[in-house]
Every structure is written in C-alpha cells, then in structure tokens.
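SUBJECT: A protein chain and its fold
Encoding: whole-number codes for local backbone shapes
Chain under study, with its fold:
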Amino acid sequence: QVQLVESGGGLVQAGGSLRLSCAASGRIVSINDMGWYRQAPGKQRELVATITSAGSTNYADSVKGRFTISRDNAKNTVYLQMNSLKPEDTAVYYCNADLRSWLRPASDYWGQGTQVTVSS
C-alpha cells in the first residue's frame, strides 16, 4: 500500500557531492518524521539524519556540517544533500518514514536502500 523509493546513489570521488531522494507513494494521510540511515559492510545500521514534520532536524556527529536533510511535504519526499564526501561515508543508505496511511495508524516504512560508494 505504501512504498518508499530511493534514488541518487552512486559512485563519487572523495570531496564530491551526491543528493539522495526518497519519495513516498500510496494512500498516505500524513507523514511525521522522516530520516536517513546507513549500513556499511560488517557494521550495524546507524542513524544519519532525521527531520520532523515541522522541519526540526538532527544529525549524527560524523556528518554535521557536511550533510543536509530536507523535505518537500507536497511531494512526500525527503532529501539528503551530501557534500564533502569521505570514504567512510560508503554504505547502503536507507530511507525511513513514520507515516499514517488510510488503512493503518502511524508506523515505520523503509526503502530498499541505495548504494553510496566514495572512492579515495
């Protein structure tokens, strides 16, 4: 009923930039928090950034000053602008949305992930 689709991942050199997008579709009533998480090989998934429906943001210390999360409520889309990328940013990035649909109360939905690879 609800689907989250990420786009914008790829291969980039250190110091470069990427912009990730995640669009939610389906019979959505409202979207509360949205966020980005990432998981590197052999490591646990970690929070990268979140944004509330009111626009309040928070970031992992490792990405502060380099990444910016934003959202377009009219398009049910969340973005992650990634600047000054480092090799340690290499991971699969997952989109998350806490939303309410026509059939369910607020619950978490996840995208399938998009690969970000930063070369040195």
Observations:
- DSSP finds no helices and eleven strands in the chain.
